[in-house]
Amino acid sequence: xxxxxxxxxxxxxxxxxxxxxxxxKAMRDRYExxxxxNDIYTYEDAEFLTRSGALSRDRILGVQTGGCPHxxxxxxxxxxQDAVEELQERFPQAQILFLESGGDNLAASFSPELxxxxxxxxxxxxxxxxxxxGGPGVTRSDLLVINKIDLAPYVGADLEVMRRDAMKxxxxxxxxxxxxxxxxxxxxxxxWIRRDVLFEDVSxxxxxxxxxxxxxxxxxxxxxx
Length: 225
What we know:
By secondary structure, this protein is an alpha/beta fold. The chain has a single domain, classed as Rossmann fold (3-Layer(aba) Sandwich). Helix content is about 35%, strand content about 15%. It contains eight helices and seven strands, in the order E-H-E-H-E-H-E-E-H-E-H-H-E-H-H. Strands 3-2-4-1-5-6-7 form a seven-stranded parallel sheet, with helices on both faces. Helix 2 links the parallel strand 2 and strand 3. The N and C termini lie far apart (about 55 Å).
């Protein structure tokens, strides 16, 4: 059975690699995982994941895309398709294959021929206007992750406004607020992968994201007083 292929995209600095690092460390004891990273001219993200100990080196394959990074995940995916085939040959029992795109703008999206589902990461640092700017990454991704919620009070970002605007564009497609630096909200992303991608029953498991989000909202409210 082929692995579930999960694309992770988002602008530069939004937290794509941080999410990937956290997901690997949270799920590697339970699942066979492999990773493909895309960089324009380097192997920086692959090297970071190796140094951090996210997975063993042989499970992480870096791809140099050159040019616009979105081309390699949407229009001409051949370099990534080759990488997928190589990792599947190395690890025929792999259950999850994460594919991280190079940093790009809100227009980036994955070809459905390359991944089964996609996660798009934006962050609070740009203010609460980011979700309403739309773009395929925000509107079409299967899961939207709004990262760096701990910065909301400092940049004047209203998380409820971000939620409302994202829901207007996404309908009933899910979104998760995270502070990946401290691991907040990660359990929600893992839960979504297990339930909606791997089709596991997670109905008896608790979520721990709500208390942290409530605290950030309260802090955000105090900063406006």
